[in-house]
Design goal:
The structure is a homoheptamer of 283-residue chains.
Chain A lengths: L1 H53 L6 H30 L4 H8 L3 H7 L1 H15 L8 E4 L2 E8 L3 E5 L5 E5 L6 E3 L5 E10 L4 H18 L3 E13 L3 E10 L4 H19 L7 E8 L2
Antiparallel strand pairs in A: 1-2, 1-5, 2-3, 3-4, 6-8, 7-8
Helix pairs in contact in A: 1-2, 6-7
């Protein structure tokens, strides 16, 4: 093995002697071809999907984004793999001798690479089982955001204010997809225990009716679920509504605004925490 | 191995030369057949289960949903597997040469794929042992919702407001099935320590009787369990009732509404947190 | 390997051609036999245990429930395994060819299936070591409930209000069995620091005596353990009693009810949190 | 392999034909022998240890409990193992054919069974290194209680009120043995910052002396450790005493009772949380 | 093997005898060559990238930093590897004999080295997939900071006040890249429930307009998102703005300053926690 | 394999027939020799170390405790191992046949025993690298106490009040050794924000000087570190001192006692939590 | 294998017969040589580095500490390894026979030793990549302190008051190095919401200027970052400064002292938590 390394060393030196220019030229050639290959590939893919739009049998719009990002991703992996093999060829370093050096490390490589395989298998099933598409709003491992790219190895999710999350597919334990067709807006509102519960429910019903009339991004108008919790110093009443995708938050903010107005108009006392004080003076 | 890659490369290039149209056509043909195969398969399965409904020996309704989702799921995996094999065949890339390239990676694949195997084995036993059916309300890994689909590899659970959860079967450590025949409604109500406990129990008994008479989704009418906890500033009294599946929450909300009314009518003071203040003026 | 898949494909197609009816018929035949086999097996098992009850040497009642659930469980696994093998036989797909396809995946299967083996081994020891029986009240991995079924692979536990928990035996790290012969009822009661501790202990002793006389589900009458904790604003005094299985909670509720009464009668002030306020006016 | 299964199937059926009675009889015979073997073994073991008590060279009493539970445990494993092998023999199912079926699963069995091996190895060292004996009070993985049984695979710990904990030995990461010869009673008592610290220490010293005189389960009389913590609104003073095994809690309760009395007698104000309020009226 | 060690021992001693000076000289020679090699390599790399800046086709500025740090990193690993092999050669210790000594340990090495392989594979994909570049602001495993170096095995991140974090690439489970083109500034402001919500929104709108006019590091001017939460004693209103990279915090501080001014000017009461006190005098 | 078991069974029976007495006698003989061997070994080891004390070249006292406990521990393992092998020899059960039975389980044993190997390797390095000695005060995995015994497989740590902790060496992830030559006493003291900080620092300096003069277990007299934290309602000032081993707590208690006295003398108000109350009467 | 053990046993006994003195003498000889070898090696290393200080080309001072600790560490491992091999040689126990005994355990050893390999690999990279040097202040796995020794297997970190932490290198997941050239001092100061923010900022600016003039351990003088958080009852304003290594805390304490003075001088009210109380009398 020592000889193999020495041989590598001599090759390495000889490269620097004469052939260095040729090799550099060859590598640049491959890199340029790779670069052009990707550009052309991307272009062809985009063009293909544009053509598709004129076709009679249409894929759902939602799937096309996923397919474009995926085919480009696969193309890139294939081209890079060929380029890497070609460059190694130029250096005339036989794979086998590298493997001989690695030899003892093959177990380590096997263990170390398992995450890579896990990522690709998971990625394959995410796409195959259509767990989510580009544009969906999902929650993965406690991170929420809009899916921006689905690849074989990683998924990219754009959060509202916490940047672009890049998650290896193998790390995805559970996906919660919040946008298949509709989203659910839910607002929990606290009321003091001493208020008249029927007056409050009447007021909330009025709000539900108003919202149903004034908004057009609702699929099923807001309804009152009832007293969903009774705590030490307040009642929780829950309103819910089925909305268009991504409209959940706007509806929730609208409900909150109107509830705040109702507190003012109907003179309902605010649900501040209450405490019963028993005084013992000790002067 | 280097030659294998170069061969791949040349094949790859040659594909782009002439045969590219034929190959594309072949692939599309397979995809179309696959697509049609699935559609027909799904139709046949649905029709079969419709036919079954006229049969004399009936499977329980609850199992049919599970069986439909499962047979479709298996059909899909089989057809896709055949399609993938056929497409690889078109490219004339022998599996064996790929495996030769993989070679060193077989250990990695073995480790990486273990999750896939784990998922399928777990999925098989979930179905085989009838842990839950489509339509059941379950809690899995802290996520609650209605089972929407049981597959060999994943289970889909629809939450009330947090979207569709997609859980790989191998990640399911413990299943809590809340709807086998009945659900249990439980409401804990706090009362101030200084109130008359017998008056409260009388009032709660009255509520139990009223609910038993007015609702028809109860299997075993609400009962008082007694003082289930005695905290620093309140007693906890628990009511419980066995209800029809999915009626648990409606019953609980009903109980809470009536208890709130009882507080008002019977003039029971609210269980606000109490504090005993000892004052020391320091002017 | 490619040929094996193509062969599978052709077989698959040929099945749809002519033999499809025969195959379907065969499968249904096997399913029916399986179904009947299980019914008869279940019946035989039940009958056997009924017969046993007339026998002279009696197994303890508590073990019979476990044995019935277990033998039915094993029977089922055996019959299903034979049925599955028979169906595969009909399709004439030799196991060996499947294994050849699997081939590379055998490592993955080995890793993936380890949980299954772990479950069965754990299950075997749970039964063998008599860790718990059907009907016992146990706590496993933070879940409490009554054991409803002990199988080779899973254990089913019925919670009071959180449904039926299905736990793979391999996930059971520690079992806490609360009902072997007796249960321990324990109530911690808080008293304000400024109260007379002897008066309180007298009152609690009175309660202990009353309960001992009035209840018949006690094995060792309630006793006072003494001041088990002294916190910033209260003393904790603990009562405990050994009760019949499953009577723990009833006894605890009874104690709490009587203690609340004692607070009222003896005019003991309630253990509300106390705070010493030092006032600094700043007008 | 298929033939092996079919063979199994035919054997299975043939068993039901004629030999079923003979087989059943054989099994029952083995079970009875096993049952008797265990009874006799248990008896012999108990008798042996009784004999031992008359011997001149005595093992410490504390070890005998452990040895009895251990030898019975090992006997049981050996007898059951022989019985299981005999029953399999009756069915004439050669182990090897089962292993052939298992074949592919041997890796899975290896992985799955590692917990079993881990348990036995851990159990062996717990006994060999005398980490704890039957009757000791230990804390293992957050669970405290008295050791009731030490086996090769599991350890049983009886908690005060939370039942019998059954812990596989391999899950025992750290053992805290609280009773080797003595236990340490420790009570932390809070005093308000504004009290005279010397007066308090005098009072506590008085309590220490009283306890030393009145109790006989102390090895080293209670002492004052000093101000072990100074918090925002109180001082913590710690008393400690070395007691006989299992007397720790009784001594602690005694100390608490006497400290409460001291608060009353010496007119020390209670360590209620204190807050300094700065008032800003806004009328 | 014993002989191999003894041989090593004798060699070791002989080294100290005569050849020690020569060996030391050889090692120093190699170290000096290595040192010079790295210096020259670093210089060549820097020069190459400087040359590149005059080239017509420009790589994006953002990528050049990453490429420089990466090529230097790879160069260093290659040179050190050759140097280490050469030094071992001097000692004339054949690799094979070392491996023979290791022998039994090869499994251990395989397992132990898997992290190294995992790190390099992860590092390769971080660079290949362009997850982040030198200069980006990222969050990795709960640590936030500016990327200072991306290597094959480790990534260095400079935190604002908590020093330089060095993370092995294999430990990177999820990357959140906060600076791709823009950052999102988000400020949540609490208002008391009893205030007039429209007056507040007007004031905040005024602030948004002012900021938009006075700052030039904004991509999309600050906007009001609405009432994003309604808590027991306050409303939360959220302002957000898309800013230039790294300007997020300056914009947020500016918004906070102006909101504080608005509280003063518009006489809005501060969102102190509110509590409703019910007094019971007990004199 | 079946025959091997049957053979075992017959041997087992035959043992009970005639040779049982001889075997029992042989085993007892071995046990007695083992017992005596350990006693003599322990005695020789103790004597050797006593002899050592008269030797001229002395090992540090601190190491001798560790060496005694270690050599006794190794002796014990060696003797037990030989005894176990001899007993197995008596039963004439060849190891190889046991291994044949184990056969399939060798993988399981390999996995299961890895913890044992890990423990011994870790133990070896703890001793070899002198991480701690018998008598040191250490913190391991959140448990603090004085090291009582260091063995090859386990370490025993005596806590102040929580008994004797027995930790397998392989579970030791990080050791914090608090007594190498000295310990550091640290006391954080809170002062109200409104007090005069210079007056406080003067008082604390006085305390530091007093302690330096009155105690002789200090290596570096107590010093004031300054304002180490500024919280909402108090300043934290930290005193620290380097003390003799195990004197840390005594010094800290002394400092606390004197600080409490200073509060009284200098009339500094106590650092009770402060709250600014804004009152809104609503009568 | 049995014979091997018996052989071991006989050898063991024979050792005790005659050769015991010779063997003991040989071992002591080796131990003494080892001891002297280490002493001389340590001396040579120290001398070499002293010589180096007179050399023209100087290594940075910071690296020398690391190199000394490292070379001593490697020397020690090498010498101990040779000594251990020599002692085994004396006993004439061939390694191979030990390995034969181990045999079945080789898998266990492989798994058990992986941590050791992991530690050495990690240690190698920590040194190679210059993650930290002796004397740096680092945070590793939540433990902060000054690096005292970097070894191949373990790293020693001296905490301020929590002793010497000994961390196996393989347990180091992320290193945060706080002292490369400079440290960052950061102080967050809370101010009541109702105070004039401009007056506060002026005061803080004054403090920044004063500190810049009076201290010489600052690299970049303290600056005001602005309002970094706005909480319910206070504003947070942050000051920061770049300081000499290890001067971070002194600067922070200085800032806090001056801010406290500013509160007094400028009559700014303290940031006590504020609460808005709404009173409801119930007499």
């Amino acid at each position: 093995m020592m000889e193999a390394i020495v041989q590598l060393y001599q090759k390495f030196l000889s490269l620097y002697d004469i052939r260095i220019l040729k090799v550099t030229f060859d590598i640049i050639k491959i890199l340029v071809i790779t670069f052009i290959g990707i550009k052309i590939g991307d272009m062809l893919i985009s063009r293909f999907y544009k053509l598709h739009r004129k076709a009679k049998i249409q894929l759902p719009e939602r799937k096309i984004g996923t397919l474009i990002s995926l085919t480009k991703n696969i193309l890139r992996y294939v081209i890079y793999f060929i380029a890497a093999a070609s460059i190694l060829k130029i250096f005339n370093i036989e794979m086998t001798s590298i493997l001989a050096v690695a030899g003892i490390g093959s177990l380590a490589i096997g263990f170390g690479a398992q995450n890579l395989v896990k990522d690709v298998i998971s990625g394959f099933f995410i796409i195959f089982e259509d767990q989510f598409s580009v544009g969906d709003y999902v929650t993965i491992n406690g991170i929420s955001g809009t899916v921006e790219e689905i690849g074989l190895r990683i998924t990219k999710i754009r959060g509202f204010s916490d940047g672009l999350h890049i998650i290896p597919n193998g790390e995805i334990k559970m996906v919660s997809n919040l946008t298949k067709d509709s989203m659910m807006a839910v607002v929990n509102i606290g009321f003091p225990l001493e208020e008249d519960v029927d007056k409050i429910i009447d007021g909330l019903q009025q709000i539900c009716d108003d919202i149903k009339n004034s908004r057009d991004d609702l699929i099923e108008g807001p309804s009152i679920l009832g007293i969903t919790d009774m705590q030490d110093s307040k009642l929780l009443i829950t309103l819910y509504a089925k909305t268009q995708p991504m409209q959940k938050w706007a509806v929730e903010r609208d409900i909150r605004y109107r509830v705040k107005k109702m507190f003012d108009e109907k003179n309902i006392s605010f649900p501040y925490p209450r405490t019963n004080i028993i005084l013992t003076n000790k002067n």
